[in-house]
From TrEMBL:
<dbReference type="GO" id="GO:0009002">
    <property type="term" value="F:serine-type D-Ala-D-Ala carboxypeptidase activity"/>
</dbReference>
<dbReference type="InterPro" id="IPR036138">
    <property type="entry name" value="PBP_dimer_sf"/>
</dbReference>
<keyword id="KW-0645">Protease</keyword>
<keyword id="KW-0133">Cell shape</keyword>
<feature type="transmembrane region" description="Helical">
    <location>
        <begin position="64"/>
        <end position="83"/>
    </location>
</feature>
<dbReference type="GO" id="GO:0071972">
    <property type="term" value="F:peptidoglycan L,D-transpeptidase activity"/>
</dbReference>
<keyword id="KW-0812">Transmembrane</keyword>
<dbReference type="Pfam" id="PF03717">
    <property type="entry name" value="PBP_dimer"/>
</dbReference>
<feature type="domain" description="Penicillin-binding protein dimerisation">
    <location>
        <begin position="102"/>
        <end position="270"/>
    </location>
</feature>
<dbReference type="GO" id="GO:0071555">
    <property type="term" value="P:cell wall organization"/>
</dbReference>
<dbReference type="GO" id="GO:0006508">
    <property type="term" value="P:proteolysis"/>
</dbReference>
<keyword id="KW-1133">Transmembrane helix</keyword>
<keyword id="KW-0472">Membrane</keyword>
<dbReference type="GO" id="GO:0005886">
    <property type="term" value="C:plasma membrane"/>
</dbReference>
<dbReference type="InterPro" id="IPR050515">
    <property type="entry name" value="Beta-lactam/transpept"/>
</dbReference>
<dbReference type="GO" id="GO:0008658">
    <property type="term" value="F:penicillin binding"/>
</dbReference>
<dbReference type="InterPro" id="IPR017790">
    <property type="entry name" value="Penicillin-binding_protein_2"/>
</dbReference>
Length: 649
């Protein structure tokens, strides 16, 4: 109405008055008011006032509107500058500043002697600066197609990655590029402000054979990782298997930051400040890289010569539980999993029927064969079922119970427990387990109790993923799984490591280590210590005794003497030529429906008088333990004590 009034009175458009513009100066508003009063002066005369009713009605709303405009403008100014000042400043700074995370160098991994096993080497990455992508959709899709062609993926894959980017930061599209590849990409995308070639680092694993299962590998963080560890970013690399996974949080380090000033289009103007990334901690293993290399080579040679396809070997410090060597064959090259360009080779490994990704040293479950006999002897002596001087006539070479016969592999004659261990006398151990002639036998209850006591049927707790517990069969287990009763023959078979008993190489190694160290069942560990970049300690690996006093030292000494006699005159004589005195036990374990097929096993500890190392070797389907597995064990002992290596024939 006011606008129309002025238009009628002054001959101007409603918008010319400026009354609807809250930013018109107050002086202009006052001038308009004075002009109006000059044309229509106010009067105190009642008649004059009443003679101008239209002027009065239009003047009062004018002042009211002026007051409201000024009040609204003032209130908004206060809200912006005072009440919300800090918040608006924060938003403005957020639009002006961009923070980029600087990845921390991942920690290194060394063997016990300081030999580098895992390191970081320079590499290059192809990245997209999302804030600098072309604003036009057509131009953006043109760039996407160009990227997809270079990366050999579909445009949909690139678009999906861009859609999943939750902020305006940097998205990595290709990692671990060589310098030549980086140069080629730089030339290809020259002039594209949103395409960046950045220098980073890639994980490189030593070419020492047999390290694949132990060290593991890293990969892009998963949804599960992000859920369980909120501090991780969607583009972080984390451990996926092996020690890389077990000690990932120690190896990760703390990322740094770069704060940059950007313009309204997101382009970087200058670097404001940085916080330096803190490198990850160094992990020092108890592993001896030289022994590991010899063990891997010897095992592979033995597998090949025997016509087998797979096997495992473990060596452990009998006093600390540190793993000195651990080999599983077939193995794999960790570097395949840190290099995105080698996808085809990774696929070949994943589809291999020999399952190279399985660490047979901790996940392979095998019948123990006669390598279990030192543990059974310890149980019999400790329970008083026999004494060190008990003699048994085993010259019949067979035990007959009803229509069932339980033969020995050869005739032995009179034997005590030492001789029974040395010559792997089955009849003696049948009697020790289930009873025969004057020997009452342990019986299945005590037999299984001692197997559990020595760590069978449970995980060892080693700091690696993927461990299996093996199996100690019991009457309850057989009734549940087989729906069959337990027979005396089951007890006999259990006492010589046949039947349903399943052990892992690492379980057997620590059981033999317990016999060597006086009855302490140790938790095996890969770790020796973890150090910060300045050399200070973060963690020291501690010797953990899971169970102590498994048997009296007098009992264990008799068993050790039996194992020593096996080297001097029994089934393990191959090791008698060593300059170091060794105690050992051979094993040949039947498997499958065809009983002629056997695994080759061998276990030992050394030196005999003051044990340091215990070991186990298995060659799947390799045949006789003293023929196939024993040479591998000999090479491992030679390597550990720095003796000349005997060529496996």
């Amino acid at each position: 109405m006011i606008g129309k009034f002025f238009a009628r009175r002054r001959g101007i458009k409603p918008t010319d008055s400026g009354l609807f513009d809250p930013f018109v100066p107050l002086g202009s508003l006052r001038r308009l008011e004075n002009e109006y009063l000059a044309d229509y002066p106010l009067t105190n005369n009642k008649d004059d006032f009443e003679s101008q009713p239209e002027a009065k009605r239009e003047f009062i709303p004018l002042r009211l509107v002026l007051f409201l405009v000024i009040a609204v403008f003032g209130w908004r100014l206060i809200a912006l500058q005072i009440a919300n000042g800090q918040e608006n400043y924060r938003l403005a700074e957020g639009n002006r500043l961009r923070t980029k995370q600087v990845t921390a160098p991942r920690g290194l991994i060394y063997d016990r002697n300081g030999i580098l096993l895992v390191e970081n080497q320079p590499s290059f990455s192809l990245e997209i600066d999302v804030a600098n992508l072309p604003p036009e959709e057509s131009e953006r899709q043109l760039l996407v197609r160009k990227l997809a062609k270079v990366l050999n993926v579909s445009p949909g894959v690139v678009n999906k990655r861009l859609e999943n980017q939750t902020d305006q930061g940097v998205l990595s599209l290709a990692l671990n590029l060589t310098r030549l590849e980086a140069l080629r990409y730089q030339l290809k995308f020259n002039g594209e402000e949103s395409v960046l070639i950045t220098e980073a680092s890639r994980r490189v694993y030593a070419d020492t054979p047999g390290l694949g299962h132990l060290l593991g590998y890293i990969g892009l963080v998963s949804a599960e990782d992000l859920t369980s560890r909120p501090r991780l970013r969607f583009d972080d690399m984390v451990g996926k298997s092996g020690l890389e996974q077990t000690y990932d949080e120690y190896l990760q380090g703390s990322p740094g930051q770069e704060v940059m000033e950007v313009d309204s289009s997101g382009k970087v103007i200058r670097l404001i400040g940085t916080s330096v990334a803190r490198p990850g901690n160094s992990v020092i293993l108890g592993l001896d890289a030289k022994v590991q290399k010899v063990a891997a080579k010897a095992l592979q040679t033995s597998i090949k010569k025997s016509g087998a396809k797979s096997g495992a070997a473990v060596a452990m410090d009998v006093n600390t539980g540190e793993v000195i060597a651990m080999v599983s064959s077939p193995s794999f090259d960790n570097n395949l999993f840190s290099d995105p360009s080698r996808v085809a080779l990774r696929g070949k490994i994943l589809s291999d029927q020999n399952a190279p990704l399985i660490n047979r040293a901790i996940a392979g479950q095998y019948p123990s064969g006669s390598t279990i006999k030192p543990i059974i002897a310890s149980a019999g002596l400790n329970e008083g079922v026999i004494s060190s001087s008990t003699l048994l006539d085993t010259s019949a070479g067979v035990i007959t119970i009803g229509e069932w016969t339980f033969p020995d592999w050869k005739t032995h004659g009179m034997a005590d427990v030492r001789q029974a261990i040395a010559e792997s006398n089955n009849i003696f151990f049948f009697a020790l387990g289930g009873g025969y002639k004057q020997i009452g036998g342990l019986g299945v209850k005590r037999l299984t109790e001692y197997l559990y006591r020595f760590g069978f049927g449970e995980n060892t707790g080693v700091d690696l993923t993927g461990e299996m517990p093996g199996l100690v069969p019991t009457p309850k287990w057989k009734a549940s799984v087989r729906d069959e009763p337990w027979y005396i023959g089951d007890t006999y078979h259990l006492a010589i490591g046949q039947g349903d008993l399943l052990v892992t190489p690492l379980q057997l190694t620590r059981a033999i280590a317990a016999i060597a160290n006086g009855g302490k069942l140790l938790r095996p560990r890969m770790i020796s210590r973890i150090l910060r970049s300045d050399g200070s300690s973060v963690m020291i690996g501690k010797t953990k005794i899971e169970r102590d006093h498994l048997a009296s030292n007098q009992v264990l000494q008799v068993v050790r003497e039996g194992m020593r006699r096996a080297v001097e005159s029994g089934s393990a004589q191959l090791l008698s030529s060593l300059r170091i005195q060794v105690a050992a036990k051979t094993g040949t374990a039947e498997f499958g429906k065809v009983k002629e097929k056997t695994h080759s096993l061998f276990t030992a500890f050394a030196p005999y008088s003051k044990p340091e190392i215990a070991l186990v070797v298995i060659v799947e389907g390799g045949g006789e333990g003293h023929v196939v597995a024993a040479p591998v064990a000999k090479n491992i002992i030679e390597s550990y004590f720095r003796l000349p290596i005997t060529l496996i024939k």
